[in-house]
């Protein structure tokens, strides 16, 4: 049974952005649940492929070509090619609301989705407007529990960061995360990356050494300020109350080595109990204070980078629909492409970093529940 699961998982890695397996009993209001609800699954070559309808496809592509005109970012084009091959098997009469909801092109969204936006667009800083962040992104995040934005950093910035991270001074400060080496007396590591936590003091110390990284960090943290200012208020999956959000002082820089470094399935904001329970209980827990995970990938592997990301590079962020990574639940693999930003529900979203075989760097900020425990 286990072997079958593993073989199945291995196959699944090759089907990025596609759903597979049977439905999960307790899928959160995460993206995969949304995909599950909205997709028509068609048996094809032994697998289940995600397809959507003609109207949705048109609306998506109109939004996308707008984004391509407005931005030179190639990542969106890359993603659309992938979606296109799935969407080619379209069935008619699906509404734009049923678009595959995980990936949003930078700056451009289908009109129908924009109309659904709750908050008006109000990015005040140049940082945010360069990112093209909109109220609609927050709406998606609230509804689906995850949103992915591409092209947050340009090729020059990513090259700069890659150079900066090679500095001995930085490498010397990276260490294994003491809290996550092993769990419950088990000597198997939970994660094998190396991290450096950037707080105000460390930031000051490295400011002159890491100017490009500092820019990326500001960008990611500014997303938290945007969420804060827009009154993000939490996820629909936990809609029982409105939660204020706070940007912490700390950012995690994580480097996954090319020798298969990984981070096993986990939730950033607590366990299964945390995912199921209302957030008011979570305020009493340390990890429960994490509300939204924000990740920015720093690899120089975008389409304009040193070389594009390849399947064999591994290191995908895998997000699960169900509560349990050992059951046959749906998952989506998100390649860690430089300049890609991922925001997700830190409480509910079970995720892992798949074994990595190429340079992989990322910064992560956990945006917290606003009120102190
Ligand atoms: O780098 C990633 O893709 C995810 C890392 C992660 O899950 C974590 O640091 O908690
Ligand atoms: Fe995580």
Automatic annotation (TrEMBL):
Required co-factors: L-ascorbate
GO biological process, one term: cellular response to hypoxia
DNA repair in keyword set: no
UniProt-recorded Gene Ontology molecular function terms: ferrous iron binding; L-ascorbic acid binding; peptidyl-proline dioxygenase activity
InterPro entries xref list: HIF_prolyl_hydroxylases, Oxoglu/Fe-dep_dioxygenase_dom, Pro_4_hyd_alph, Pro_4_hyd_alph_FE2OG_OXY
The entry's keywords: Dioxygenase, Iron, Metal-binding, Oxidoreductase, Vitamin C
Residue span of region Disordered: 1-21
Domain Fe2OG dioxygenase: 247-369
Pfam families according to UniProt: 2OG-FeII_Oxy_3
Keyword Protein transport applies: no
Protein name listed in UniProt: Fe2OG dioxygenase domain-containing protein
């Amino acid at each position: 049974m286990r072997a079958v699961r593993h073989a199945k998982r291995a196959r699944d890695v090759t089907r990025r952005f596609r759903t597979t397996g049977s439905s999960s009993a307790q899928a959160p209001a995460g993206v995969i649940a949304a995909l599950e609800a909205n997709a028509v699954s068609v048996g094809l070559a032994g697998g289940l492929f995600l397809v959507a309808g003609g109207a949705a496809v048109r609306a998506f592509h109109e939004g996308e070509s707008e984004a391509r005109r407005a931005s030179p970012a190639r990542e969106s084009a890359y993603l659309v090619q992938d979606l296109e091959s799935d969407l080619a098997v379209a069935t008619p009469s699906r509404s734009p609301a049923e678009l595959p909801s995980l990936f949003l092109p930078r700056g451009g969204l289908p009109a129908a989705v924009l109309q659904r936006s709750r908050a008006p667009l109000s990015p005040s800083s140049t940082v945010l407007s360069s990112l093209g962040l909109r109220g609609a992104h927050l709406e998606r995040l609230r509804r689906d529990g995850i949103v992915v934005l591409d092209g947050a950093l340009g090729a020059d910035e990513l090259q700069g960061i890659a150079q900066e991270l090679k500095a001995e001074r930085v490498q010397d400060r990276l260490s294994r995360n003491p809290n996550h080496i092993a769990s419950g007396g088990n000597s198997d590591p939970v994660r094998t990356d190396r991290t450096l936590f950037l707080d105000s003091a460390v930031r000051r110390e490295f400011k002159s050494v890491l100017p490009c990284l500092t820019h990326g960090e500001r960008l990611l943290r500014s997303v938290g300020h945007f969420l804060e200012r827009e009154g993000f208020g939490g996820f629909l999956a936990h809609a029982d109350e409105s939660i204020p959000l706070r940007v912490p002082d700390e950012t995690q820089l994580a480097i996954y080595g090319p020798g298969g470094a990984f981070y096993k399935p986990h939730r950033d904001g607590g366990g299964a109990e945390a995912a199921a329970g209302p957030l008011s209980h979570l305020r009493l827990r340390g990890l429960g204070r994490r509300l939204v995970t924000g990740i920015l990938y720093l690899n120089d592997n975008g389409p304009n980078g040193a070389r594009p990301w390849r399947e064999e590079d591994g290191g995908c962020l895998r997000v699960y629909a169900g509560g349990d990574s050992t059951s046959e639940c749906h998952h989506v693999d998100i390649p860690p492409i430089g300049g890609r930003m991922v925001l997700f529900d830190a409480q509910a979203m079970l995720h892992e970093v798949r074994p990595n075989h190429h340079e992989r760097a990322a910064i992560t900020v956990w945006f917290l529940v606003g009120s102190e425990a």
